[in-house]
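User: Quick sanity check before I run a bigger batch. Here is a single chain. Can you write out its predicted 3D structure?
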Amino acid sequence: MLPRRSPCPQGARAHGAPHNATSPMHTPLALPAQRTVRSDLRGLSTEIVTTIAGIIAAIAMVALNVASQRALDLDILGLTYAFVLPAGAILGGLGAAGGYYVAARITSTLPSRRTLFEMLAIGVSTWLLMHWVDYVTLRFDNGTLIRDAVPFADYLRLRAEHLQLTIQGPSGTNGTTTPELGLLGYVHELLQVAGFLVGGLMTWIFLKRREACTPCSRYAHTLPLLQRAPSAAFDEVLRRANVQLDGLAERVARVVGAKQLVGLNLSIATCPSCRRSWLRPGAVVMEGRYAAERRIEHAYAITAAQAAALRLASPVRARAA
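Assistant: Done. Predicted structure follows.
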């Protein structure tokens, strides 16, 4: 369903070296203070980069929507399925928060409550920017700009109350248009805001599921070793690499529950900074008609020798070679 505009407007030195009259005096607080300043500057620059990336992504989503409206008369961000699922808004939230996702990966910014808040905020800001662009560009029939006649808050209120939806069938043919929604228009806009929030939340969850080395604050390089492997093949690869995953059977049983187990996945993650490696198993189960992976929320630390042996024993890596 597409929203349709109504004609109404809507210290000392490091090892205790002595100082003399000709050398600069260093207090014990000097070096830690310099490190703190550098750390603060790095954090500030990272925050600036991620914020700019989020703003650029939000503007890009709105610009794409405006272009679609002008060229195809299609409001992508306003697409709604069955009156209640704001598919276009969810897509908009994903796209807008995608700027933060890309910037976080580039700057090695691990997901936190702050990044979650920013991704949610940029989603709502995209919804607001979408309406503001309409507000500053729309005109009455006599050519007067709407922004010259009513405040932005009144425009939002009038738009919600006079909003009409165009209902289209699966074939995409022109359908019927609803009457003005009235007070239901506010419900529609709240669903749109919720959609942008859901899109931002989904992007943050995608980022949080990326393997990362917390002590180094770096995202890890991941390599798939096994995909949908039967238990016997899974155990054989671990045996050949002399690796034991204690408690894995119980963890798999918990995540599988009553679902049908299709196979087991196994990936190796390596921190690019400290070179520490760990294994991340996953259980593939049937979700209705489709197979889906359920991640095991436990990482198994391994040595560099075990990591090398697993790469050699992995049938996935062997096929790639």
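Confidence is low (pLDDT under 50) at residues 4-37.

User: Great, the batch can go ahead then.
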